[in-house]
């Protein structure tokens, strides 16, 4: 009996342990309407300087652009992006509360609440010019209707 008591206590502790995994509460899944995108492209130099050379801002009327993220697994799913008259379906993967991936593109969450979702993509193009790395960032500003 004495040998079974520690095992039973250990089983109770493990069974009662609080689940601290927050992946089940991903609150940016669903359909978001894009109000604005900002595209930046710049070089970062080995000395730390940043040289911007392109910035485009596009505004979208109500419901003309959207991102719809649907989970198909615990942390994976499909994202449908309708932008500039083109419909694209890409894979979605939750990484952390602040990061997720659309296909192989890393996305950084800026603001997320019940009505607003802002994130940006981060793409490093490599060293296309000696001692410079080309970086492309697309910012998405979205809301629910």
Morphology = globular
Give the topology string: H per helix, E per strand.
HEEEEEEEEE
- Alpha carbon gap, first and last residue: 62 Å
CA gyration radius, whole angstroms: 21 Å
Overall pLDDT: 83
Which range does the strand content fall in? over 45%
- Helix share bin: under 10%
If you had to describe this structure to a student in words, what would you say it looks like?
With 145 residues, the protein is mainly β. The chain is 9% helix and 60% strand. It has an 8-stranded antiparallel barrel. The protein starts with a helix and ends with a strand.
Summarize this, please?
The protein has 145 residues and is mainly beta.
What attributes characterize this protein structure?
145 residues; mainly beta; 9 strands
Topology of this structure?
Blueprint: H1 4-16, E1 30-45, E2 50-59, E3 66-71, E4 76-83, E5 86-94, E6 99-102, E7 105-112, E8 116-129, E9 132-143
């Amino acid at each position: 009996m004495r040998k079974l008591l520690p095992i039973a206590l250990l089983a109770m502790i493990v069974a009662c342990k609080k689940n601290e995994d927050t992946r089940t509460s991903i609150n940016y899944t669903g359909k978001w309407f894009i109000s604005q995108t900002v595209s930046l492209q710049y070089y970062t130099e080995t000395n730390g300087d940043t040289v911007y050379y392109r910035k485009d801002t596009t505004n979208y009327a109500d419901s003309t652009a959207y991102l719809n993220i649907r989970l198909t697994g615990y942390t994976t799913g499909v994202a449908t992006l309708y932008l500039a008259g083109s419909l694209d379906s890409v894979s979605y993967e939750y990484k952390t509360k602040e990061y997720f991936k659309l296909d192989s593109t890393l996305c950084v969450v800026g603001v997320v609440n019940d009505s607003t979702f802002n994130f940006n993509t981060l793409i490093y193009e490599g060293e296309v010019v000696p001692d410079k790395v080309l970086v492309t960032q697309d910012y998405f500003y979205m809301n629910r209707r």
